[in-house]
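tool_log.txt
---
The assistant was asked to compare two proteins side by side. It first ran the structure predictor on the initial sequence, then on the second. Raw inputs and outputs are pasted verbatim so the downstream comparison step can read them without reformatting.
(1)
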Amino acid sequence: MVEKPTVKTKCPNFSSGPCAKRPGWTVDVLKNALVGRSHRSKEGKERLREVSTRMKKILGLPEDYRIGIVAGSDTGAVELAMWTMLGPKPVDVFGFESFSKGWIKDITEQLKLPNVNKYTADYGKLPDLSKADPKHDIVFTLNGTTSGVKVPNLDWIKDDREGIVICDATSGIFAMDLDYKKLDAITFSWQKVLGGEAAHGVIILSPRGVKRIEENEPKVTWPLPKIFRLNAEGKLKPGELEYSTINTPSMLCVEDAIDALKWAESIGGLRGMISRTQENLKVMEEWVSKSDWIDFLAESKETRSTTSVCFKIKAEWFVKLSDEEKAKAAKKITGLLEKEGVAYDINSYAKAPIGIRIWCGATIEKSDLEILTKWLDWAYETVKAEYVK
């Protein structure tokens, strides 16, 4: 029997969204938030310009790429891109977990596009990305938040492509290298790697992406919600993304995002964020390599996510249980950790295979993950004792 650990994690928040706040965060960082003021005031626009400028600088975006805040978290940003950009060409869409497969459903059942090629894979795997046709538009997810599987590189996207590429990057951006020249619309939410607040989405547009919206939006045959209409008078004017948002953003959330970006700058910017994430994954890899009961859900190390790390329980006694019994046993393991105040919200996503999911993004401390692995072993052995006599 594994002895119960005595040292607890300093921060027990390992949810995959909203994710843990940056180390040292307190509500005091919001004291200068522009609450009670219009986001269209001079000061409000300055705050919005600041958050956009800091994001662009840290990410190292090309000078001619546009970035700004939109409504509805990452989901709203992806939908905005699809509803305003798709239509002129056939679409190749790749799905390998809950959200990416949801984009397939929206493209085929909501937009009802006539020429769609669907490429899918089960949890733990990637679809065949080589099927992407450079003459078509492409929609894909960079990192499967619910599957722990990432797209390892963008070599499969042609530089001389004719179509545009929409990338849902929400649990990967700020933690993984991206060749921006391969992408025309990149979406994410502050609530993931930055540990910001939820509800707001961010969209990055290449010049090709801007051109597609300007040319395509007036031609769409489906109803277009107002919060999706980026361009005014047929043009996406300077500032329309960066500091003149379609909807009203929360200035509290903007202040919080600025704080997160300042923290990112203090640890070395993008390289520092990526390094922390990779070091966190190493802790989990070392733990798994010594374990006889847990394994990664991702079947390949090359496609293993460094942020939303998903696990399956491989112990023989567990595998023999019914799905209902597996779900109960897994929840008992995570429930013990929650009761002890060691780890919150680490159950697998509801539609994903039964197991455990631990956020390992840059706002998580490596030392807390090292402590958590010991508690995981204890909780597992405690629950195992109920089933194996």
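(2)
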Amino acid sequence: MKILYPLSLFALTLAACAAAPTTGAPGAARLANLGPAPELAGDVWLNTSAPLRLKDLRGKVVLIDFWTFG
């Protein structure tokens, strides 16, 4: 079961990229503009000295990995 979730997420991502119409550049996916991202909220932050804010991350490449204990 633990391997099923990452594999299904990978398969969905791959399918979404393959189904997305491309523009002039090969491999470029055209994504819908869904507006600004909501602010990151949470009381517990791991591996950071302070909570992260979107304005501090602007212009940087960010990988967000959501997971829970349990």
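---
observation on (2): The chain has a mean pLDDT of 74. Helices lie at 4-19, 54-57.
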